[in-house]
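Budget justification note: compute hours in this period were largely spent on complex prediction jobs such as the one shown. Inputs:
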Amino acid sequence: MAPDPTAEQILADITAMLVETVGDEFLLAEEVTLKTTFNEDLALESIEFVALAELLQQRYGAAVDLIAFLAEKDMEEILAMTVGDLVSHIAGTPAPAPVAQVPVDAHVPADAQVPASRAVASAPAG
Amino acid sequence: MAEILANSLRFHVHRLPAADPGSGAGATAVFLHGLVVDNLSSFYCTLAVPAARAGHDVVLYDQRGHGRTERPPAGYDIGTSVRDLTALLAALGLGERPVHLVGNSYGGTLALHTALARPDLVAGLILIEPPLNGPWIENMLDTLSVAALGLEGSQVPRELASLGARKAARLTATADELLNRTTLIDDIAAARPFTPEDFARVRCPVLAVCGEHSELVPGVRQLARHAPQCSVRVVPGLGHDVLQGGTGELRRAVLDRLAEAARQPQVVTV
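Corresponding output:
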């Protein structure tokens, strides 16, 4: 079973998703870091953020409750976020286990509050 | 990318599962955006995420030629748009249970056409600033034609791109393609307004929301006079921009309506 992803892995994932979403002709010029903002630095369109959200849902599944995270924001606030804001949210929720390997009793509530530092600092090996 | 093939076109579809799917208490809401410069993202934060959080299944898609859906040169007439929608519902496995259509602007027009053509598929309508009759076709064509002429052969998208104004460049490039390289304007020109007889045939519940200063209010009032179950809500101080300008009030109205609908047993009219 994969360990919880580290911030570094999540950043690499999100960068790859951004390339997939907007095409790499634009992103090559720009190094995506935790401080990169979706709007000012990447000029991400609303619809591209929705496409990114799709890829995040596919990659991390229900364990990362993206909807709850975005619920109180409008599109302007979302696009004003940094990539690091998104990474912190994802790092702060448990990583999805491959479906076939999840023990029946291993239910973790989707809204479980796990400190962002946990996954980053000490990713468990199992 | 969530791409679904329906009516021989690749559609960009985004689904938001209900927050509490186990309860089975939610409705299914399908959102229909407006013309040319619009796409599914205008619903995302305003209505779609809140509806999913409230326990409803949400389907968003970019209509033919818009957003991230394929842009063929033809097929922008209302009949094809209705077939796009019904084919998409079938492809998503939603053909069995009637859905709620939430349409903004021309998306509302499409929603009403769909309810008339396929009443078996539609449980309810929420129409936000829908152009229904009166001079809207002519007015919209004027606006679109002026925009099309302005963009024809224009260097504006390229200039914007070189200035780093990537968003504006893409928006104008999309509008240019839709207006100057598809049959959209001709197809809209061929549309016919709804008649009182059309309105009288609408069997499902309808909620219509308009801006106080909108030129579309008379058409909506006429719909309410003739449709058996139609309520109207007028948002004070606004024109056509109810979705963006009146998001809070609109969201409460839409969530109330979906909750009410979800409490009632589904009645399928065939």
